[in-house]
């Protein structure tokens, strides 16, 4: 049976989940698609390794990875608490 503490913890985790989803949307939307990036350099794909993302692109890639991991960990915690 779910007690009052589990319900309160579930509400907190749900609020965190909503916040993480909004942050993920904000981080993912400004990124360019891989198709757009490959059109900039029309050379073969082996030379693409030399063009690593810098500045805003690198920051957005790192933030996407961090927020997505936190999102999934929080989702698993939410399932465990509400069980």
TrEMBL record:
Any one Gene Ontology cellular component term annotated for this protein: plasma membrane
Membrane topology: Multi-pass membrane protein
Subcellular localization, as worded in the UniProt entry: Cell membrane
Pfam families, per database record: SecG
Key words of the record: Cell membrane, Membrane, Protein transport, Translocation, Transmembrane, Transmembrane helix, Transport
Principal location: membrane
Keyword Calcium attributed: no
Transmembrane segments: 12-29, 63-82
Single GO biological process annotation from the record: intracellular protein transmembrane transport
GO molecular function: protein-transporting ATPase activity
Keyword set includes Cell membrane: yes
Similarity section: Belongs to the SecG family.
Purpose: Involved in protein export. Participates in an early event of protein translocation.
The protein's name in its UniProt record: Protein-export membrane protein SecG
Organism: Peptostreptococcus russellii
Source taxonomy: Bacteria, Bacillati, Bacillota, Clostridia, Peptostreptococcales
């Amino acid at each position: 049976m779910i007690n009052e503490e589990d319900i309160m913890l579930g509400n907190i985790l749900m609020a965190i989940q909503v916040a993480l989803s909004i942050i993920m949307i904000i981080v993912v939307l400004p990124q360019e698609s891989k198709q757009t990036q490959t059109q900039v350099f029309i050379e073969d794909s082996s030379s693409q390794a030399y063009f690593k993302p810098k500045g805003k692109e690198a920051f957005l890639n790192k933030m996407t990875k961090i927020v997505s991991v936190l999102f999934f960990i929080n989702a698993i915690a939410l399932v465990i608490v509400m069980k």
